[in-house]
Structure formats: structure tokens, C-alpha cells
Write a structure and sequence with these properties.
Strand 4 and strand 5 form a beta hairpin. About 30% of the residues lie in helices and about 25% in strands. About 40% of the residues are buried. The chain is globular. Strands 6-7-8-3-9-10 form a 6-stranded mixed sheet, with helices on both faces. A 4-stranded antiparallel sheet has the order 2-1-4-5, with helices on one face. It is α/β, with parallel strands linked by helices. The longest helix is centred in the last third of the chain and has 18 residues. It has a single domain, classed as P-loop containing nucleotide triphosphate hydrolases (Rossmann fold).
Length: about 230
């Protein structure tokens, strides 16, 4: 089991967000979480990465309890988080940003810049360009590449499709499929673009008001009758 979350509750100060969340993810699986804004999807990823403390419950990553570990310890174990909007270092070039990401971690199997560019070939011609000059889709690709350069075991992806044109979303999906096929990496993806999620995942959870309301198949994500129950059709 790559990830096991049991009865996790968490929030911001006295404001509860997640309530008794339980999920599991197998090694090598691509898992999705869908739902409207404000349902707790991003909070869940931040809790998994250790950026928000667990109030109750447990989290096991690759068989080890991690709910009390800080983010850098989880990162060294092979957990990587790509936040909403990509973020990053706008004054650095693409190559500098990738080298910094590689140097910041101690994951023993980290890749070289050339190896990462072979997975994301559109970054090749952009290596000398400052990150601030990239398009939204290029920034997202760079953000994924920064995470992948440390050869994580589980990649957490938050709203990759937001603000990105459809053709680039399709390109991101293709890169992720190739990455999964070549590396066997486990991926947990949170997104509101249901077609994007359905094209990638083995299965998905629907999140409502801080809880996982139902597990669904990729086919279910295109079924208005099923999604209508959750107000997502």
C-alpha cells in the first residue's frame, strides 16, 4: 500500500475542513479526487505533505506512519507536492530552477536535468528562459518537472488544469501518462476538470464538505446521473 489515510480530521485554527477522511492508494496507482471549490481537496493534499497538522487520525506512506513528520522528512521519503498554480522561482531560469530542485532534496534516485527534459521535451528549448516568462501551461510543466527530478514515489498534483488552455491540459495528461508508464510512479491528482481526471485515473473519490462522499470509476466521471447526486453534473 503506497498511501493509507484513516479517519483524518484537520483544518485551519478553529475552522474544521476535513472530517474523518479515509482513503487508500495502491503502489503505482493513479488516484483522483474531484469536487467543487471549498470542499477540502487542497487541504487534504497539504495535510498529506505535512503543511497542515493532523488533528485526529493517521497517515501511512509506504507502510510508515508520517502524520507527525515535517514536510522535508516526507519529501526525503519520496513524497512530492505540486501546488495549485505551480509556484516556483520567477527570477530563475528553467535550468536553474530544476538544478535547485534536485539539490534541495536528498532522495537517492534523483534525476539529472537532461533526464527530466527527456520526460518533458518541451522544456528543452526553454532551459535558458526565466520562469516568469513562461506561459501558464509551461509553468505547470516546469512545476511537475521540479517534483519529478527527485524521483518521488508518490506525486501529489493540485488543480493542474486551472487557467490552462485545453490543448495544454491534454499535453499535460499525455506527459503524466508517459511518466507513469516509464517510471511506475504513483499519482494522486486533485482537479475540477473531470475529463482530465477521467483520462488519467484508475479510480477517484468525490469530495463534499470535507468528506469523501463516494468512490467512482473513470466512466462515472462522465455520467451526469451519478455526478448530479453530488451537484457536479
Amino acid at each position: 500500500m503506497m498511501l493509507s489515510v484513516r479517519n483524518v480530521s484537520a483544518g485551519y485554527g478553529k475552522a474544521p475542513v476535513l472530517r474523518n477522511v479515509t482513503l487508500s492508494q495502491n503502489e503505482g496507482e493513479i488516484l483522483g479526487i474531484v469536487g467543487h471549490n471549498g470542499m477540502g481537496k487542497t487541504t487534504l493534499l497539504r495535510v498529506l505533505m505535512g503543511l497542515i497538522a493532523v488533528e485526529r487520525g493517521s497517515i501511512a506512506f509506504a507502510g510508515e506512519a508520517v502524520e507527525a513528520l515535517p514536510p522535508h522528512r516526507r519529501s526525503r521519503m519520496g513524497l512530492a507536492y505540486v501546488p495549485q498554480g505551480g509556484q516556483g522561482f520567477p527570477d530563475l531560469t528553467v535550468a536553474e530552477s530544476l538544478r535547485l530542485a534536485a539539490a534541495a532534496g536528498s532522495w537517492r534516485a534523483r534525476k539529472t536535468v537532461d533526464e527530466v527534459v527527456s520526460l518533458f521535451p518541451k522544456l528543452g528549448p526553454l532551459l535558458s528562459r526565466r520562469s516568469s516568462a513562461l506561459s501558464g501551461g509551461e509553468r505547470q510543466m516546469l512545476a511537475i518537472a521540479r517534483a519529478v527530478i527527485r524521483s518521488p514515489r508518490l506525486l501529489l498534483l493540485d488543480e493542474l488544469s486551472e487557467g490552462v488552455q485545453p490543448s495544454v491540459v491534454e499535453e499535460l495528461a499525455e506527459r503524466l501518462r508517459e511518466l507513469h508508464a516509464k517510471e511506475g510512479i504513483s499519482i494522486l491528482i486533485v482537479d475540477q476538470e473531470l475529463a482530465f481526471v477521467a483520462s488519467l485515473v484508475n479510480r477517484a473519490y468525490v469530495m463534499q464538505k470535507g468528506q469523501l462522499a463516494r468512490e467512482v470509476s473513470p466512466r462515472d466521471l462522465a455520467d451526469p446521473e451519478i455526478l448530479g447526486v453530488f451537484g457536479m453534473a
